[in-house]
Design brief:
The structure holds two protein chains of two kinds. By secondary structure, chain A is of the alpha/beta class. Chain A has 17 helices and eleven strands. In chain A, a hairpin with a 3-residue loop joins strand 10 and strand 11. The longest helix of chain B has 38 residues. Chain B has two domains: 54 residues, Roll (SH3 type barrels), CATH 2.30.30; 40 residues. In chain B, strand 4 and strand 5 form a beta hairpin. The chains are: A alpha/beta, B alpha+beta. The interface between A and B is large, with 60 and 44 residues.
Chain lengths: 371, 98
Amino acid sequence: MKYLSEYRDGEVARGLIQRIRRAATRPWVLMEVCGGQTHTIVRQGLTELLGGAVEMIHGPGCPVCVTPLEQIDKALRLAADSNVIFTSFGDMLRVPGSECDLLQVRARGGQVRVVYSPLDALDLAVKHPDKQVVFFAVGFETTAPANAMAVWRARQLGIRNFSMLVSHVTVPPAMEAILSAPDNRVQGFLAAGHVCTVMGWTEYEPIAERYRVPIIVTGFEPLDILEGMLLAVRQLEEGRHEVENQYLRAVRRQGTPAARELVSRVFRLVDRKWRGIGEIPGSGLALREEFADFDAEYRFGLEAMQVSEPVECRAGDVLKGRLKPVQCPAFGKVCTPEHPLGAPMVSSEGACAAYYNYGRFRGESAEMAAP
Amino acid sequence: MCLGIPGRILEIHDDRGLAMGRVDFGGVRREVCLAYVADQVRPGDYVVVHVGFAISRVDEAEAQRTFEALKEMSQLEELEWMREVAERSLAAQEDRAS
C-alpha cells in the first residue's frame, strides 16, 4: 500500500545500512521505546545487518507489558461481575493476572468482549442499557485521545452505564527514569513516531539537553528506523544532542493540538506503577475529578485494591534493557506465547514475543550467557 | 494495540456532532473518528489511524520527498562504496606491482 511499500524498499535499506556502518567509528547504544519499532527491528534483523555498529536496547514500549498486575487483577474482578460487560483491546486478554487471565474469566462465563475502538465499547453500552459496560483504557499517548473522546462522548450523550478502568502511561518520564538509572547504557533514543504524532516533540527537548542524548522522532517502517539510527549515529559522532524529526510525513512539532487539548481536559497526570519497573513519578494519566463518574475504580469501589508484583519472570529486566529476551532462563522453555510467564511474551508488541516469533533465538541462546 | 496504520479517507460525515469517515486501508474499509484532524483533511487525504481514531494527517508531498532523499542517499552510498572498493583493489594492485 502507498506509504508502506516504499518504506520497505530493500535496495534503499542496503544503502542506508552501509552508510550507518561507515558513519559509526565505534559501537553506539540506542533505545527504542515502541513495541511497533521493536518488531520491525527484530523481524528485519536490522541490528544483525548493522554488524555491531549500533546496539539496540528494546525499551518499555509495549503498553500491555507495563500495565501493572494491580490493574490486571482489577480487570479480572470486574470481568467476573455478572452485571458487567468488560471490553478491552485484544492483546490484554492473555496477560496473566495473579490467578488467571481475562480469557479464562470469559471461559467461566464472564462477559469479556474485544473491541477495536473505545467508541465500540460506547456503542455496546447503548445497546445494553441493563448492563454496566467497562472499557480497559490502557496505552500510551497514542491511545489517550481515543479514550478521552469515549469518556467525553459518554458524558455528552448521557450514557450512564459506561465507565473506564484507566491504566494510561506516558513515554517521556520512562525515558528519564532509564537515563537517570546508575547503570544506564543508553546513548541515544529513537522516539516513538506515533506518540509524537499526538504530542509533538517539545517534551523531549529538555530531556535531550539535560542528559545530553540525541532523540530522533522515528517512524515504523524499516527505512524510517534505519534513517532514525543514521541521524542518531551522526549526532553521537559529532558530539551533538538534539531532538530531530525523521518522521516528517506524519509528525509536526506541536503534534495534533485538538487531540492534546481533549486529553488534557479529560485526564490528569498521576504517578503510575509500571509492571516490572516500579512507580515512575508523573508517568500516568487518570480521569480528572469532573469525570469521576466514568471511573470504574470509583464506581465499583476498587480504589483501595493493592497487589504486589511477584518475581514470576524477569520481564522487568527485559523492559529496562538489562536483559535480552533470549538471555532469560525461561525464554522459549517454560515461557512461550502459548504459555507466557510475563506480558512481554503475550503482547504482539512485546520484545520476548518478537524474538520468539521471528526466530531470533535459534543458535543465539546458547552463545549468549546471562550477565 | 499501538500500531498506527495509514489509510485514505473515502468520505466524511457527521455523527451527532462528531466528525467520522470511511477510511480505506489497502482494500479494508473502516469507520474512523476524524474529530482530531477534521480541520486539516478532505476525502482522498491519507491519515494515520490508531484504535479507530485519525491522529495525524500524512503529508503526501513530504512522504515522497523523504523517500526520494533516502533513495538518492542510498544510491550515492552504493557509488561511494564501489569507488572505495575500486580504490582498494587499485592500491592492492600497486602494492603487488611495487
